[in-house]
Write a structure and sequence with these properties.
CATH architecture: 3-Layer(aba) Sandwich
Distance between the termini: 43 Å
Helix content: 25-40%
Strand order of the largest sheet: 1-2-3-4-5
Shape: globular
Strand content: 25-35%
CATH superfamily: Gcn5-related N-acetyltransferase (GNAT)
Number of strands: 5
Structural class: alpha+beta
Radius of gyration: 16 Å
CATH class: Alpha Beta
Length: 146
């Protein structure tokens, strides 16, 4: 199976929303109209990218990453990875790995000292460990009311 990865474009909003519904099925779904202002801000942020993996004409996975300038670690950059999701019927075919490899390729010209992500305790920890990620510390969240 041939899979191609490309940056998301304006017209990909509904495709991305459908993939995100797989990531957090318990969340209320945003309509494209509700999501459009955030989508525009995401795509207009220069160091923030959304990638889509396509098998033939179907989007089968996505990942988002942000390059963050940094004043510690000798001024080296860090990268935050978010919202990596692959449709369940495509799990185990290397698409998540392909997406992470594409992120690594795209950040290669920056002096990045780490790629960071958060994963729930019931999440795909084994998958990320196979990609070279290690558990280092603890992520804490403060959820804010609307």
């Amino acid at each position: 199976m041939k899979v191609l990865v490309r940056e998301a474009r304006w017209e990909d909003l509904e495709v991305v929303l459908a993939l995100y519904a797989e990531l957090h099925p318990e969340d209320p779904r945003l309509s494209p109209e509700e999501a459009l202002p955030a989508w525009e801000r995401i795509l207009d942020t220069p160091l923030r990218k959304v990638l889509l993996a396509y098998s033939e004409t179907r989007a089968v996975g996505t990942v988002e990453y942000t390059l963050v300038p940094n004043l510690t670690r000798e001024g080296r950059w860090l990268v935050i990875v978010e919202n990596l999701v692959v449709y369940a019927d495509f799990n185990g075919l290397g698409i998540g790995t392909l997406l992470l490899d594409e992120v690594k390729k795209r950040i290669a010209g920056f002096d990045v000292y780490k790629i960071q992500l958060s994963v729930g305790l019931s999440g795909p920890i084994v998958f990320y460990a196979k990609q070279g990620f290690v558990i280092d510390g603890l992520t804490m969240k403060l959820k804010l009311a609307r």
